[in-house]
Amino acid sequence: MERAGVQVVYGFVNMKTHAKLSLVVRRENGVLKSYAHFGTGNYHPATAKVYTDLSFFTCDPALCQDAGYVFNYITGYAKPASFKKLGVAPISLRRRIKKLVTDEIEHAQAGRPAAIWAKMNALVDEEMIDLLCTASQAGVKIELMVRGICCLRPGIPGYSDNIRVKSMVGRFLEHARIYCFGNGHAMPSQHTKVYIGSADWMGRNFDQQIMVANLRDERQSWVLHADGTYHRISNAPDVFAAHDYFMHNPSLSGRGKALQQKLAAQDEQHAPLVKKSRKRKAK
To answer: How far is CA 238 from the centre of its chain?
Structure first.
């Protein structure tokens, strides 16, 4: 790559750079325009065939500016004072996640819906485990999908009885990290705060690495019990399997906000025709 003219930066000596992030800045009609891509997986053709990951491509100015701050931090050691939308380890990710969990505790104590859905590869950070158990005791409903090591014991009465832990093992390696917080509303909801990233809830991910931050499955899922044992939910051929679903529905692009905007635009186009039709009937 360097022989081709690419400047390669290896990051910090004492920290692993683990974020999956790219930023493109180009001139369009005489104005600089930025595009950012945030992913949960590596830019690698081999793992792309066997890992399940998410990616988010955006031109949102705040996210693009935050992405620029991350690259400046890695290449110039200029620590950003703050980020508008990103949670970045080791600067702000731990603090951001703790604040989001604490907010759910406050919602539960105020009698509002409170829930956390999180998907990760490992859960071993003691501080986060203690905070999740505190949230459980406050009445927050917590659904976790942890593919690998999970040091939290769910279902212990009076301690973690509002926490459910699943592990999904199937044709593909579950690799995406997703964190969802109800934000005072029952999930799923448009008010939910959703984060994707490359960080598991481990001490090294929060403090020693550069990080940027499918509960419905039954056929490939295993449930963790309070005694540390797992049992498989179901292996029946007619139950829902997330890997099969996403093989047949490979992209959800354009089915959310973009679809709503498209339908709204179509409604506006048809509105004058409807008015004309009503006028003709009136005559």
So the answer is: 28
